[in-house]
Write the structure tokens for this entry.
Amino acid sequence: MKAQTAEKNRLRSLPAMDCLLGMPDMDPFLENLGREAIKTVLGEAMDSLRKKILAGEDVEPSAESVLKLALPVLAARSGGSLRPVVNATGVVIHTNLGRSCLAPEAGKAVLAAAERYSTLEYDLSEGKRGHRSDHVEWILREITGAEAGIVVNNNAGAVLLMLAGLCSGKEVIVSRGELVEIGGSFRIPDIMAFSGARLVEVGSTNRTHLKDYGNAITENTAALLKVHPSNFRMEGFTSAVPREDLAALAKERGLLFLEDLGSGTLIDMAPFGLKGEPTVSSCLKAGVDLVTFSGDKMLGGPQIGGLAGKKEIVDRLRIYPLLRALRVDKMTLAAFEATLRLYLSGKHLRIPTLAMLKETGDSLRRKARRLSDRLKKILPADTVSLVEADDAVGGGAFPAERLPGWAVGIVMDSLGSAGSVLSLLRSLPVPVIAGARDNMVLLHVRTLLPGDEERICDAFRAVASGR
Ligand SMILES: *Cc1c(COP(=O)(O)O)cnc(C)c1O
């Protein structure tokens, strides 16, 4: 009992909210967070202090104790949460870091669409309502050879729209080898269930034959669906049915042939050293009726889902009510149009994703050398080295492709393990996200953008000065 009274007394000496708010420490936060948001954080800090005191922990019920808990939270909240970072991981389409970075043209288009009124759904020649897909449909047709196209929020939405709008209440046949989960919990069986279409699995995990599809067709079948296995790859005794054969079967039996292509490759990537990835146009040419794809993977644009294919099919989706719930925002549309125009005019290497993938070993080595020379002036020279390191396409594309790259390796025993250096780099005003091999921090240069070299040097200046 006595101990409890002592704790209650200690609780009473906790500072009052007004007193905390009046402290000069709060001035910078009052400016950019406002009083109420600060009170929330201080309140939570006091609550946690109260709990500690009641649990008999040895903490002072002082203003300093509250500030010790509250200040880091206030600092984090006042700095902006969705922040730019340096991607030094060498993973080009890094989903957690925002996948593709926009080309400068696309970035400008976003800003213009965001800050001004626009022709988003306005037909200038008629002075009346237009359609938002009109801005990109003709370019999609031009680039992919499709008869028609529309866009939605992302590829998951495109697949959902396709299945709900065309196959709801009917059966859709998919190979067991293509029923994979793609990062971020995208699973075809789940999307299928949401869409109201019924999944019919055929074949085995490693092998599916044309007759497996043929035997599964009933009077309830609406479509054959092909799914890009994305970041999953099978080797050895495998077999999948060529698109041409599936297209012929679908045609013969009066079914739709649909494909979720995923990565959204618009041009042949073989000259980039990346072979075997089908393009949207090659799928359509092989007889697929409707292809869905992402805008921010290999395509290098904003998060968007594209649907390209036969006009009669796209027209059915244009009037399907779910489209309204999946419609793209004007900033996204502006970025997508500007990105597609770069393909149209042959300037697609201005798209960072493509430029990064195209970079050769020699050019990467030169970049890594330049960065290591600069870092050697900031850190003890023997902690910095030039190393070969594999990069990755990411985003579920080309999972097996080795993308040989170069990195600057840093070993700083004085700072402890690579893990603690990585965490220090993440804590800086412009966080640097790097890779590691054994005890060496790896700064992959392939994914660095203009200005990032300087940002990395700033980061290591901060690290070296013990900040
Ligand atoms: C990435 C991917 C998706 C999901 O696309 P989002 O644009 O992320 O919604 C769906 N299917 C395949 C095959 C993919 O690779």
